[in-house]
Every structure is written in C-alpha cells, then in structure tokens.
Amino acid sequence: MSIILSIPSVDELSPAVDALKRWQYDGGPLHLHPGDLGWHSSRGAEATAAAIRMWLRDGEVLALGLLDGPDLVRLAVAPEWRDDEALARQFAVDLDAPGRVLDPDGATVEARGAERLTQLLLERVWERDEPWTTFHRGLSDPVKDCGLRIETIESDRAEVWVAVNWSAFRGSPFSDADRRRTVGRWLTMAGGPFYADARCLAAFDQNDDAVAVAAVWSAGPGRPGLLEPMGVHRSHRGHGYGTAITLAAAAALRDMGASSASVCVQSSNVGAVATYASAGFTPSDEVADLRRGSR
C-alpha cells in the first residue's frame, strides 16, 4: 500500500492523539507531543484538526505533523517507522513541494529524531536553522518544594494565568480586548479534547501576587510529560520564580504519573537555559530545525 497524506476530521483527533502518546518514551527524541496539540487547541478543535497532517499506510498512522503557522511543521514519527526509507522519501517529497504542506514562500521543519528525513532534506538544498536545547528531568524521586504557593488554575481563575503569560511573552499593555480574547482562548483549550491530561499552574509570592505560570501536559502514566509554556511576569523577574514554577511543574507531572519532564528552548535563550538547569533538568545535544533554502 502507498503512503497517504491526510488531514484528520475532528472525530479522528482522538485516535491520532492516542498514537502520538504511544510514540513518547524516555530516551527518545522530544518530537511533537500531545501537549503541543493541546496548547494549539486554544484555537478550537476544528482549527486544530485542520492544522494536523497525517501520513498513513493501510490505515495505520505512521507520522503526524502540526502546522504551527503556514511555514512551520512540527513532526513526530512512530518509532518503528523512523528509519523507513519509503516514508522518509515520501516525507521529503511532501515537505519540499511548495504549497503541498508548507507555504511556498517559506518552510521550516522540526524533525527531531527523523535522521533519514533530515539527510534527504539537506540533500535537497535545505539548511539547518537556529539550534535548540532539549532538557529532561527524571521523576522517579520526589521533587523538592519550590517555596511558593502554587495554584492549579480552574476556569474561574483563567484571567490570572493569562495575564502573567501575556506579560511574560508579549510585554505590551494588556487591554480589555486582549483579556477577553485570551481568556476565551484559554477556556476553549480547557474545554477541549486534550486538557484532561493537562494542568495550568500559577505561582504566588509573599504578597499573593501571581508571578509565574506554566502548563504541563501528560502523555499517560510512565511516559514523558511536557512543560509548555513557562513564563515569569516581567515585573517579577530576577527572584528565582522561573526555577520555582519549573519545580512545581515537574512535581505536577510526577503526580500525574509521568516518568520524566521535558522542555525545549532556543539555545540562545540563556535565561531559560539557566532556569531549567537550576531546576534539575539535564540538557541533551543541541538540535536544529531545517529551513528550505533558496533554489
């Protein structure tokens, strides 16, 4: 049977995510994780399904991609198919053809662990992009207390979480329109098909101000969990709150049965690199996305 490129329906999301969960294991690459789909689902289930690409053979899902915008696809490949020559070549054809999967004017592929695909794309005049560092922390032992009050955010407290996350990643004034839109998206995510395996956490200082937030995503008991995103309010940086919320996130994943906690950051983000290291996360070798070069 030939390999088919497909876009799932909303009803097909659940079996696709089940497959993605099975592909997560300790010692494996930090490729596309169910939590990445969960974070994307703030756009709604229909938009999330429309952003997914599946490669199938005889009904079996061999690989999944998430279009994180029109010019970036983030991939995961079933472990037993990662070195398959036919799949790698079909990948290369589909990803290299402008407009088939990625925007004709720009294309970046996150293909961690897919070494044969990487080789084929480099042969097709693709280039290595900015390096990223993957961090892992085993969770067999208890995680030390972070020293702050940690709250698991429910729907009635969504505004607290999104306000800190906005400050951490946007930095611009948080208008009423921004608040309504981002709270609405958080509620869509929390009410969607992925959030049963997630928690959103907020850390509070001695004045009971929310100072840092994180989201954690499980792939099921005994499998690696994902920490994404993590951020500290711009008015509260420099006090170790990033380390504290990261420790709280690791503890939450342990409570959820995860075997380890993982996160990936741009290697140039020295602050984030230092934060994860201080929270007991161990870096792996750098990885780089692939960018379509000029013809």
TrEMBL record:
<dbReference type="Pfam" id="PF00583">
    <property type="entry name" value="Acetyltransf_1"/>
</dbReference>
<protein>
    <recommendedName>
        <fullName>N-acetyltransferase domain-containing protein</fullName>
    </recommendedName>
</protein>
<dbReference type="GO" id="GO:0016747">
    <property type="term" value="F:acyltransferase activity, transferring groups other than amino-acyl groups"/>
</dbReference>
<dbReference type="InterPro" id="IPR000182">
    <property type="entry name" value="GNAT_dom"/>
</dbReference>
<dbReference type="InterPro" id="IPR016181">
    <property type="entry name" value="Acyl_CoA_acyltransferase"/>
</dbReference>
<feature type="domain" description="N-acetyltransferase">
    <location>
        <begin position="148"/>
        <end position="295"/>
    </location>
</feature>
